[in-house]
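Revision sheet: structure tokens.
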Amino acid sequence: MPPTNPARRRALTDAAIELLASSGAHGLTHRAVEKEAGLPQGTASNYFRSREALLVAAAERIAELHHADTDRVTEQPATLVDLLTRSLLTAATTLRTRYLAIFELQLEAARRPALASVLADLQDTSLQITAGHHDKLGLAIPRERIPALIALYGGALFSLVTAPPGSVNRDVVQQVAQVIVHGCARHEDDPRPARQGSEP
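Predicted:
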């Protein structure tokens, strides 16, 4: 029976997230995780019998942290643009390491069916949680459009998180969020003048 110390398990998965972001999936080993977490040799293998189990646990931990953060954000009334702006800006700055790690896991999943299955399950859960958040905030987003919204969010997340550090600011992120929600057409409430010339 595997150990059941939740704090130690979290320490190991958090260390795995740090290593995924800094060294990539190839740098994730039981020993490296133990060293990053400051735990004795053999600890990681007691909790995670294989490297794949360690990868899966890191993915589950990222999902847990992401949904907890989203729960906190949705405690305050907000428009969808504001909600996406806050979420994307935080992900690309304060929590950049976490999201670099999930991109590493998504690439690794292309070669590991078990990990791909876990990520697919997490995606299904994310759809349900996102729908619940929309209901909580009173957002009129049709349920059938939520998968497309999440896909657009994921693309924006990748672009912003992998951008050069320091190049992402609130104005940039807010423009991205506005396009996700409203499309590329200029809106009547946008005070900026329309550009002249051949640009769309």
